[in-house]
Design a protein that fits this description.
The protein is built from 7 helices and 22 strands. It is mainly β and about 450 residues long.
């Protein structure tokens, strides 16, 4: 067995570990709200093609929009009278001994939460499919608040398929007696399924003053400044037992990978660390020795011949994606009569087309309607739409879901992949959305 080809995500496995069935594309007039980001990159010299043995949570997603803070890392914005403290840089010695780890943990533990997801998994058998309740555990990091909610970032695979989400706040080492005030319900505010990131919210009215006085907002660091061998600390809900701590070093930078379980695909560049990343750590914090958030723990290699190879999403990569999620959550659904349309006909790029022809994930444009914004912007037959306003799309359903929040006349940035002699190149154009009549939609 080639150990480099076998991975699994480190969320606490659900009671049922069967992957969900693929989602089909929808009619443009019947979208469902989702946020998607990114495209599959084709850098074969750097990419590690990985097959994940994954216990992902199955099912649909829920949640409503919210008024986000102007910038999520500020953490204490809002007009109400509740002000959250923020983790502050820790002064550590050059040796970074055990005392330094203790100082970072004491400072940062209140910014990391435990997440429990109760959902439904579709179980497929020889005799047909049926739904089965599932339960899994993960972690999250407090990144800020708005006037009504506390905002928490986590992995998409931690909250996927949720019917009920609960968050436990762990601001000290005593987790054996968690009071009701420290265990509250949460709602999904938005997510980027291809980048494995999500933002959830907890109503401030559900938190008592004692909890609010002790929890903290994480201080953002920069993963761009990391060096090999730099010491790091991981905090998360390992094995679903509550917060625990591991430490290690940055083992590698810029690990470009596409990770897939056959249903979900996450493509990006990861930090590699030997700090233990165990089931339940997904969505938790990877911190530098100043106590700054530098990564979101996501996955690990699992093999009898491999030890201490874990991966985290770099915070410098995650930050703009999270901000995009927050920005789009502010939008309200536009009535169909006022909705904007690109003016294209197309379909979802299939797995076969991606594997056999190297096509990127997205929407293949089979035709462009004359007189629409798409035609005026120069979109052409044969290109693949991969993102709208920085949010990636992997299917026609994704495209429809995004556009239902834009009015006719608004301008959007459309990222496309165009085939050439040396593969696909990326191009971004601005499209003024047409109304239904101009787009030829009756």
């Amino acid at each position: 067995m080639d150990y480099e080809n076998y991975y699994y995500f480190d969320e606490m496995p659900p009671e049922s570990q069967n992957p969900q069935s693929p989602q089909s594309s929808e009619n443009p007039q019947e979208p469902k709200k989702k946020d998607f980001f990114g495209k599959l990159k084709k850098n074969f010299n750097k990419k590690v093609a990985c097959i994940l043995v994954v216990a992902l949570l199955a099912g649909g997603i829920g949640g409503a929009g919210f008024a986000a803070a102007n910038h999520f890392v500020a953490g204490i914005l809002g007009d109400n009278d509740i002000t959250l403290s923020q983790t502050t840089p820790v002064s550590t010695s050059s040796g970074s001994g055990s005392g330094d780890v203790v100082a970072v943990v004491e400072n940062c533990m209140p910014s990391v939460v435990s997440i429990t997801n109760k959902g439904v998994t579709e179980v497929r058998t020889f005799f047909g499919s049926f739904q089965q309740e599932s339960k899994s555990s993960g972690s999250g990091v407090i990144i800020g608040k708005d006037d009504d909610e506390l905002l928490i970032v986590t992995n998409y695979h931690v909250v996927e398929g949720s019917r009920e989400l609960t968050v436990v706040f762990s601001f000290d080492e005593n987790q054996s007696d968690v009071t009701e005030s420290r265990c509250v319900e949460a709602a999904i505010k938005g997510y980027d399924s291809t980048k494995d990131l999500a933002v959830i919210g907890v109503s401030l009215s559900d938190l008592d003053k004692d909890t609010l006085s002790k929890i903290k907002v994480a201080a953002m660091g920069s993963s761009d400044d990391l060096v090999l061998g730099e010491e790091v600390i991981a905090i998360g809900n390992a094995l679903g037992y509550g917060q625990s701590v591991t430490n290690g070093i940055i083992s590698a930078l810029g690990r470009e990978m596409t990770i897939s379980d056959g249903t979900n695909t996450f493509s990006g560049t990861y930090l590699q660390t030997n700090a233990a990343i165990n089931p339940g750590n997904s969505g938790g914090a990877l911190l530098n020795m100043k106590g700054e958030l530098i990564g979101i723990n996501s996955a690990k290699v699992t093999s009898s011949s491999v030890d201490a190879v874990g991966y985290a999403i770099p915070i410098s990569d995650a930050e703009p994606i999270i901000q995009s999620i927050l920005d789009k959550a502010q939008r309200s659904e536009v009535p169909e009569s006022q909705r904007g349309y690109l003016g294209i006909t197309g379909g979802t790029v299939t797995e076969t087309a991606m594997s056999q022809y190297g096509m990127p994930a997205g929407v293949y444009v089979s035709d462009v309607t004359a007189g629409t914004g798409a035609a005026a912007a120069g979109l052409s037959k044969g290109c693949v739409i991969t993102a709208i306003d920085g949010t990636s799309i992997t299917s026609m359903e994704d495209l429809q879901n995004i556009l239902k929040y834009y009015k006719a006349g608004e301008k959007v940035s459309v990222e496309t992949a165009i085939a050439g002699m040396n593969g696909y190149t990326t191009e971004s154009v601005e499209v003024k959305l047409s109304n239904a009549k101009a787009a030829g939609i009756k």
